[in-house]
Design brief:
By secondary structure, the protein is an alpha/beta fold. The chain has 10 helices and 14 strands. The protein starts with 7 loop residues before the first strand and ends in a 28-residue tail after the last helix.
């Protein structure tokens, strides 16, 4: 029987175990030009005993930024700063993938220079408010991307992936989940287009497939993963009938020979459907009431998933794999730092650090 503590070959990247650090937005890129700092180096180094670390969301371009103080991988200073992180993780024996995320309509003009505004699939504003340094502000109506701009955004992802490898990452995870740009293309209430990028299941999945294909072409499919969240409903996205869309998408992704597909579970039934559709490595963020715990390791033993991500518990227990193997004890997570339901891997905006 396979257990969480068995090694796994991730398309040529050898992982010591099957416990993964979930990607968690941190808003702590206080270095020059939204680059990581010493605290980022220490955060990932402390958790390097995971089989795989997946970073906080990293924007592939200036307009990809969704929140204050989030890091990028589109400048030389950002690449150099991330190299310090990857060097520390590798020195501690870990493996780390960079998660690339474009916020799309999730953003605000105050985050960008020169009067730029958020861009989106269609001119549909997100509900609610964004937190800025000046306080909460309503989300704005995004400017609809042209077809040429969509293709340019695909190129931005590929360039950021190349930068990630230069920065020493073992690979890249394309963030297609949780209400951000790629997910906005997938959801019918945010994708109102009637051109090749919308209007049908084939059109709505095109951007996700093209971004993933471009990243794989740039750095190799064996170093490329993607994260999906069918019908999770974060940030105002509505997917009342997700199975046709995600079945078609997973079938397309399966043809690319990726390092992995990371799935945020909606229902156990659909997770098992994805398990059957996808022939590669499946990483699962399990649907839970109070965050992923040791009991979810059985999903590896019964073959539902190949790796399990941990968010809250990994924040509170940097040596989590050793504690899971020993059966505890566990530090209790501070729930006040989280927003949203389940164990999606998102934390609230922290106080500024030096």
């Amino acid at each position: 029987m396979t257990t969480a503590f068995d090694p796994i070959d991730l398309s040529g990247t050898q992982l010591a175990n099957r416990v993964a650090l979930a990607p968690m937005t941190r808003s702590r890129a206080f270095g020059p030009g939204n680059s990581p700092t010493d605290s980022t180096v220490e955060y990932y180094r402390q958790r390097a005993s995971a089989g795989l670390l997946i970073t906080e969301a990293i924007q592939p371009s200036v307009l990809g930024q969704g929140y204050p103080d989030t890091p990028g991988l589109h400048s030389r200073e950002q690449v150099a700063a991330w190299r310090r992180v990857t060097d520390a993780v590798h020195a501690a024996g870990g493996r780390i993938f960079a998660q690339l995320m474009h916020g799309g309509r999730i953003g605000h003009p105050d985050l960008y220079p020169d009067g730029l505004v958020p861009v989106g699939v269609s001119p549909v504003a997100a509900p609610g408010q964004i937190y800025l340094h000046t306080g909460p502000a309503d989300y704005v109506v995004p400017r609809e991307l042209t077809s040429d701009e969509i293709r340019a955004t695909v190129t931005d992802f590929a360039a950021a992936a190349r930068n990630a490898i230069e920065a020493g990452f073992d690979g890249v995870e394309v963030h297609g989940a949780n209400g951000y740009l790629i997910h906005q293309f997938l959801a019918p209430n945010t994708n109102l287009r009637t051109d090749e990028w919308g209007g049908s299941v084939e059109g709505r999945i095109r951007f996700a497939v093209e971004v993933t294909r471009a990243v794989a072409a740039e750095i190799g499919a064996a170093r490329t993963g993607i994260r999906l969240s069918p019908a999770i409903g974060l940030l105002g996205l509505e997917e009342p009938d997700p199975e046709p869309t995600y079945t078609a998408l997973v079938e397309e992704l399966d043809r690319l020979g990726l390092a992995y597909l990371s799935l945020i579970e909606n229902t156990r039934e659909f997770a098992r459907t994805v398990r059957k559709l996808y022939s590669g490595t499946l990483i699962l963020t399990a649907a839970t009431e109070n965050g992923t715990g040791a009991e979810e390791l059985k999903l590896i033993e019964d073959g539902t998933a190949d790796l399990i991500t941990f968010g809250r518990l990994f924040l509170a227990n940097p040596d989590l794999p050793a504690r899971l193997r020993a059966g505890g004890p566990y530090n209790a997570p501070d729930r006040a730092t989280f927003f949203g339901g389940g164990d999606q891997g998102y934390i609230d905006y922290p106080a500024l650090e030096s």
